[in-house]
Amino acid sequence: MKLVPIYRIHTYVVPESLDRVLEGVLHVDDLIYGNYKNVAWHSNDGIEQFVPSKNSMPTEGDIGERKQVTSFKLEFSIPRDKHLLLKVIEEGIYPNHPWDEPVVQVTEAFETRKHG
């Protein structure tokens, strides 16, 4: 067994855009975990809440009014490589995400690998 340094990435996306965002990420990186590729997780039917400010360009909701939408949490990991991280966010998530300002959270972590 070994420990591998990774970035753990979470983003929240409406159900109808989940596949598009995931495919955008997979276009940048294969999301390899051990002997598997395209490894990602998502939860179903959470509620995302926000109030668009006057400087926003909301896809949903009106400026100054609270909006709640059904949202999925998409999460995956990549090797701890800052260049790859920026590419995944800027080329994989941002252009495929419907929100003006997608929530993207990144943590540094370790994953185990049983083999290799």
TrEMBL record:
Judging by the UniProt lineage, the source's domain of life is Bacteria
InterPro entries in the record? DUF34/NIF3_sf, N-reg_PII/ATP_PRibTrfase_C
Q: What is this protein called?
A: Uncharacterized protein
Q: Which organism is it from?
A: Virgibacillus salarius
